[in-house]
Amino acid sequence: MSAFQGVDERPCDCFYRRATKRSSEDLICVVRKRKTYDRPFIQKGLKAGNRICPRTQQVLSHTILTPNHLVREMISQWCKNRGIELSDPVLLVNEDGITESERDHFLSLLQKMSSGLPEQKEAAKELRSLTKRMPSFRALFGESIHAIPQLLSPLSEGKFEDGIHPELQEDVITTLLNLSIHDNNKKHVAESPMVIPLLIEALQSGTIQTRSNAAAALFTLSALDSNKALIGKSGALKPLIALLDEGHPLAMKDVASAIFNLCITHENKARAVRDGAVRTILKKIRNRMHVDELLAILAMLSSHPKAVEEMGELGAVPCLLRVIRETNCGRNKENCIAVLHTICLNDRTKWKEIREEENTYGTISELAQNGTSRSKRKASGILDRLNRTVNLTHTA
């Protein structure tokens, strides 16, 4: 009789094993009318990826299992009349580690997101906490196409005359960040129509924590290549670069990580260059802010011709040579020399600066001898070009 303890009502899922096959005839009639089935068998089908009802051939609108309390009470009474002990269903945990009461609580919190501001604030704060602490609650958002729109409903345009409440916005955006950490949610979250526009809006408004968490959410979502393209096309790079330019310590790392991930694709490199990434990054490097992360982005952008042209115009050569001299980080030296090598290949007017640096400090030679394997290769390539230039001058 323990299989009765997780009975759920699902109007379409007639192909799952009916709980009443192990019950009395009068219960069979009730269950058939309400189409109530045993939770373990429903879950098994859903876990296997079955989302189509064989009777109607329609895709299930959601996969949230709603408890049928009436049938459970009838089963409980049936067991009681026959002296069979039935465990408390509230204490039963499904395969994802969620109790029935927790699932009901989750649904009630989503419903509160469409209520008044006090209820919304309370629900948003609790959803933020639950999705931070419990991976199983993050997974619940992937079970229904309506869960994320319900979560975001308070941030929809024109919801309040006085604008979006800052604390409510922060809690909702942070919940999105928590959801995006769950690998199975990344595609579903990013492709929900309201998500990317609201994250972009959050990058530009709200508390600095909200803006930082919006950047972090874009970073985690951009782990998927399809999401990189979607986020780039949505125009997220421009506000990310603007936030980077502001230089708030709390947001810098998340913003830099998001920009780096997005710029892995060629199309997003072009967008970042167009939106002023090179100028902003060089300015921060000169100010010695998050040099490690920003040099990595600059090295990635150096594969784009327009970026290389801008680097030359904005004085990247002396800036990068100074970093090589001053840093002890092998990776930073490697990124600097890689960018300098690209600049040298594309702009002969910069050779004079590099030659003067070499004559004064021997920066390139030192790196060619003691750098990483990639640094040695790039530095040697620059030295070969400098030597060829000198030989050609002497010959002339």
From TrEMBL:
InterPro entries: ARM-like (IPR011989), ARM-type_fold (IPR016024), Armadillo (IPR000225), Ubox_domain (IPR003613), Znf_RING/FYVE/PHD (IPR013083). Keywords: Repeat, Transferase, Ubl conjugation pathway. It comes from Prunus persica. Pfam families: U-box. It is an enzyme of class 2 (transferase). Pathway: Protein modification; protein ubiquitination. The lineage of its organism: Eukaryota, Viridiplantae, Streptophyta, Embryophyta, Tracheophyta. It comes from the Eukaryota. PROSITE patterns: U_BOX. This is RING-type E3 ubiquitin transferase. Its EC number is 2.3.2.27. One of its GO terms (biological process) is protein ubiquitination. SMART domains: ARM (SM00185), Ubox (SM00504). It catalyses: S-ubiquitinyl-[E2 ubiquitin-conjugating enzyme]-L-cysteine + [acceptor protein]-L-lysine = [E2 ubiquitin-conjugating enzyme]-L-cysteine + N(6)-ubiquitinyl-[acceptor protein]-L-lysine.
